[in-house]
Amino acid sequence: MILLFRSGPLTQKLPLVLKATRQHARNLAYFALVYKSTMLLLSRINAGKVYTQDPFLAGLLGGYVVFGRRINSPVAQQIVIYVFARVCLAAAKLAVQPHIAIGENGVYMPARNGWGLLDRWPDTREAVRDYGWVAFASLSWACVMWLFKWHPDVVQPSLRSSMNYMCVGTLPFPSPFFIFLVFACTRQMRRSSWSDTWGTFADKKFTVTSNQIIGTV
User: Fold this and answer.
1) Tens digits of per-residue pLDDT, 120-175?
2) Helix segments in the chain, DSSP class H
């Protein structure tokens, strides 16, 4: 992100990239040290047993020691926000998963048990599974663009810089970075369209083949 959206020569950007990379690796290593040490200590206290709350307590201590006291660190903020987003996605999956998970062969699968918040409304659960990500992605971008337009001072600085580069400032065409972004987006869109077309064709071909088989029998 620094290389793409921050102004200045490459000689000024590289030290910033190396500094951010070093801080990122150091934070993760420090957290792993605190987390594993806490888990080992709790295991010793509990005579080798690992209770349900042990990972939560170890993560709580590690999050406080490594990330909780560094609110002004952009690298720490990005890591915490990334983890928070993953927690939200995992919680959403647990919310729509059945409280008692049964596999295709009728075997009970406790590892896939969810919270079962929508067990009484199976149609609603399927609708959430089908359209939940669509709504989440659309609303996320709608909200961030609204904030960027009317309250840019509360948007994270690196994100605000990226938005200024892409949506406000004059695009420096034919900048190599701009050409790379256009090429990557176009290639991804072509791959998605080809995958959808091929999937539809394969489904139709399979349906015709099955009908022919049924008619022959």
Assistant:
1) 999 999 999 899 999 999 999 999 999 999 999 999 888 888 888 788 865 555 55
2) 2-5, 10-45, 54-62, 74-96, 122-150, 157-163, 176-216
